Structures are given as structure tokens and as C-alpha cells.
Amino acid sequence: MPGRSGRVNCNICWSEDGRYHLAKEKYFGIGASFVYFECSSCGCLQLVDQPADVRAFYPDDYYSFEKLPPPVPLPDGLRRWMFARRNEAQLLGRSGVWRWIARWRPRPDFESFVSLFANTSIRSLRARILDVGCGNGRLLRALAAAGFENLVGVDAYLPKDVEFGSRLRILATSISHFSSENLFDLIMFHHSLEHMPEHEAILGRVVSLLKPGGTCLVRIPIAGSELWRDYYTDWVGLDAPRHLLLHTPESLKILARRCGLDIYMTRYDSSAFNYYASEFYRRGLTLHDDERRRMRDPASVFSPAEMAAFVDRAERANADRRADQAAFYLCRTQRA
Fold first, then answer.
1. CB 226: neighbour CB atoms within 10 A?
2. DSSP 3-state assignment of 174?
3. Tell me: the pLDDT tens digits for 292-316?
4. pLDDT, tens digit, for every residue of 239-258?
5. Contact (Cβ atoms closer than 8 angstroms) between residue 190 and residue 164
6. What are the counts of helices (DSSP H) followed by strands (DSSP E) for the chain?
7. How far apart are CA 277 and CA 275, in angstroms?
């Protein structure tokens, strides 16, 4: 089942050994079928033949393009300065009186960002941050509301650029838009790299755009994981045909090293969603609810006890490092 292109070589380690899987589009229930090659050597999964018009599989109600309000305006003058200092202390671990103030009056909605920056070199709200494949910019808008001043997002599937003042720009383009004159402290791929072809070229561009000591954060589904083995083509992380190449930790390590990057930390971060969404597919349900034009509500299918079991399974899988998604923190190697 090698597809139209004939013999398949792994895009990462170039092995010809592997097996094929026939997967259907299940998010919207379009029904088209696609062939994936699973490499026997490095384990990565790759779409054999990309659709001629992949944009057709990203309609306006795809979750990452959901319309959002503009970022909340920051206060002016002294209040803005105090707001920024408190947030730096909470998000970036700054010491002194502001750390005490942050503990006394924390912003609960910022807590999810603490782990994002805990293992990077970012120590200021003035850090330059690039989010590649940002969709509607949900994360960037939240960071803008926290006071970050130099935020850029790119997504090739957006219809047009969006400007939110001097703090935040979202561009309808790709990472190739930037030259080595535009360096960043942090370059992020939040479940976007798997949607892109030519991973070697992309990570090569990352190396040229990172400041010395900068971090590249790659959050991706993990091929070869326990959920993949349990559900195979019903695994929500496969997301045919939008996911073009899904890495194992080993295949990402091979590719990163070839591009001049090292993985210095990995955090597994699966959630109940990965479990109940895969179960949707196994039961013949789409993830998208056509009637409500939004993602299907799991409470309409599963009992509270079943949902609690999904949460427990995700937490145990993360703790045991066998979960089906993770955040990989990369830095430039000495020779890069």
C-alpha cells in the first residue's frame, strides 16, 4: 500500500522498512482515506501522499481558527509598570518584593504559563517570541494580556495579517518569512509542526533565527505511544490528513541533531482529551459537532466516572513518560 509515489523512504532516517496504515479523515467525517508509512527504524509516521489542496481540510470552523476578541488593553503609566513587574515575577520567577506581591495577589489564569517559561532563558516581558502555526493567536493574545511586548505569530492558513498594536502581530505567512536579522529568544510550535512538510528545512530555519541561548519549544503528538498502539488509526493524534509527519522522541532527536539542535528537556502533557477523542473515533463519532459547529461535548457521550478515568489515565501516562504528546525544549548545539 505505498500510495501513488511508489517506494517510500523514511523522511527522517531514510529507512525503507516499515508498515502502512490506511486512515480516514475523522475530525469532520469527510470520509477520504489516506496512507501513512510507519518507519520500523525511528518509528515516525508520515503521510505518503499529501492532498493536492490541503487547505480544503482546514475549514473556517477548524478549532485553531476560532474567532476571538482582541487582547485585553493594558493599563497606562504607573499601573502598567507595576502590572508588568508583578507578572514578570509570577511568570518568570523574578525575585525581590515583586515575587512577594505575585504570591500575595497572583493571576490564576497565568499559572499555565509558568511551566512554559520555567525551562527557557526568558527573563523579561521584552523577550522576542515567535509562535509558528499560531492559528487564531489564542496563546499570543494571552501573553499580550500578561504584558509581553514583542510577540509575533505566523500561520500560512490564515486569510490575512492581523495587527494588535505594537505588542502583537499575526502574519499570514510561514517561518521562511524571517531572515537571520530577526532573532528570537523563544520560537514555539504548539501542535503545529506536524501540520508542516519539510521538517528539516523548518528546524534549520529555527537554528538561524534563535538568539544565542534561545529556546525552541516543540509540542507535538508522539507516534509509537501507548494510545497509538491502543487505537491505531482511531488515535486522535493521527488527524489524517492534516498531520503530515508525526515524530517519536527518537526521530525528533535524530532530526534535531542533524539540524544543529539538542533536546535538553521533555515534558509529557497528555490530557483527558486525547483519550475521549480517540474513543469518539472508535465509536464512529466525529470530533466536530456539525449541529453546534464546534467540538463535540464529551459530557454528551461519557459519564462523570468515565471522564474521571480518562483524566487519571492521562496523568499516569505523563508520569510514566508513555503519553501520546509532549513538549520538547531544544537549544542550539555548540557547533550550530
1. 16
2. coil
3. 778 899 999 999 999 999 999 999 9
4. 999 999 999 999 999 999 99
5. no
6. 9, 14
7. 6
